[in-house]
Amino acid sequence: MNSNATLQNEQLAQHQKVTRSKFLQRAFIMLAGSVLFSIGLEIFLVPNRIIDGGITGISIILSHLLHLPLGVFLIVLNLPFLLIGYKQIGKTFAISTLFSVVIMSIGTSLMHKVAPLTIDPLLAAVFGGIILGIGVGLVIRAGGSLDGTEIVAIVFSKKTPFSVGEIVMFFNFFILSSAGFVFGWDHAMYSLIAYYIAFKMIDITIEGLDQSKSVWIISDEHEKIGDAITYRLGRGVTYLNGEGAFTGDNKKVIFSVITRLEEAKLKSIVDELDPRAFLAIGNIHDVKGGRFKKKDIH
Predict the structure, then answer these.
(1) What Pfam family does this protein match (any one) (predicted)?
(2) Which of 107, 134, 158, 244 is 20 to 30 A (C-alpha) from 272?
């Protein structure tokens, strides 16, 4: 009994150590993402009268019209949505988001007096969008959010036929359009450029440059193709049993996971071994375990 109790205590201590390590790692990632977001706003977008979407865009407009610090609006306007997120999504998400929003608000206040790196609105839109997108992507990867409209979109998506992305896009259409009345339509168009770039950078930051892809192949040469994927791409392969609905023939289905960079090589392997093979490739947001490790392409 004593040895079992000792073992359980050691396992509990190890679990707490791992949990604490993961918590600190997540906190650091959210801190870095929030700081980057603040830099993108105050060093690039705000001085050039370019806005972002969501609550951040509304905050920039109100800060300009009412001549009050941007950080005040970022906290005040996000608080109601944080309460919704706490009730509808979860405590951890709400706390992570609150932490990120507070850091973002403090960051914008500290950087407000820093001179902008460029007064060219196009350069500001491009580089501001890149930095904003990376910042948001890091926070999302760590389990938080930097904008209350995303929380509303998640809640509404459960009660409507629209996806989270469609709801966010709907909100941002009106927010970004309002920039035309406040800052001029040229700045509204620069805002659209910044928003689009940030949107793309969020995807890249979350999914990585080596975005994972699932592969489904149906071929009579399944063994040759499977061996080629294993030894030439270094990827694990699983054979699934399938049956043609029209012919009733039994078929072997090859399933594997590759990266975006390996897609062209995979297609050439399939064309080389069986030009008539059925090939389907889809995006995957997360991969864990198995033999999914980067290897050289032969």
Answers:
(1) DUF2179
(2) 244
